Every structure is written in structure tokens, then in C-alpha cells.
Amino acid sequence: QVRLLESGGGLAQPGGSLRLSCAAVGVKVSVALRVGWYRQAPGKQRDLVATMARDGSTDYADSVKGRFTLSRDNAENTVYLQMNNLQPEDTAVYYCNANYGEEADIWGQGTQVTVSS
User: Fold this and answer.
1) What is the DSSP string of 42-92?
2) pLDDT digits (tens, 9 = 90+) for 14-58
3) Terminal-to-terminal C-alpha distance of the chain
4) 85-96 residue pLDDT tens
5) What percent of the chain has pLDDT above 70?
6) Cβ-proximal residues to 109 (8 Å cutoff; 6+ apart), any chain
7) How many Å apart are CA 87 and CA 52, to the nearest integer?
8) Helix, strand, or coil (residue 35)
9) Which of 18, 75, 79, 113 gives 20 to 30 Å between its CA and that of 39?
10) In this structure, what are the phi and psi dihedrals at residue 30, rounded to the nearest 5 degrees?
């Protein structure tokens, strides 16, 4: 069964850090066209946070540039999102995504990140 298993969400204070993990089961992240993270705040659409192409090149939303780092560990078959200097506006449900083409777009179940003092 193909799944993306997310972990690492939780509560952080402003200025704090969290690391999200996305472990792939049944697929290899190393051959995905793109892997990455999206987030959805209450009442808002799901937006891109960071994405990595197969060649390792990355793109980040302007709002997280310089604070978040996306990485991929092929040996662990896991994608990570290191989030530093978290702000209240980063509060959202974060979803891992792996794309293998038009007919194979895989999503995780989501993990809640709350930034509050």
C-alpha cells in the first residue's frame, strides 16, 4: 500500500523550531518527479510551502524563504521540513506530497502545526 506518513507537528512558540518528517511507504521518494510540503490554514486554500524536484533543486514560498529548509534522505526514504523562526502565521495543517506524474499524486494525512505563545 502506498502511503506518506507524516510526523513532527505540534505546538511551538514564536521564534521556535519544528522538524516535520514524511516517510514514504510503497514508493521511493528518490524517483518522484517532485516531493514537498503544502499547508492549509483554517478557511484558506492549500498552499505550497516547499518543493524539491528529482534533481534536488528546491523552490520555497516567499513567506518561508530563509526560515524553512526542505531535504530528502533517499536512504531513509523520507522527506523533511526544518522550520525555524516560526511565526503565528505559520499555523496550519501541513501536508506532505509526492508526485509521480498526472495519475500519481500522493498526499499524506496532514500534521497540525500551531505557533502560539
Assistant:
1) TTS-EEEEEEEETTS-EEE-TTTTTTEEEEEETTTTEEEEEE-S--GGG-E
2) 999 999 999 999 999 999 999 999 999 999 999 999 999 999 999
3) 39
4) 999 999 999 999
5) 100
6) 4, 5, 6, 95
7) 23
8) strand
9) 75
10) -70, -25
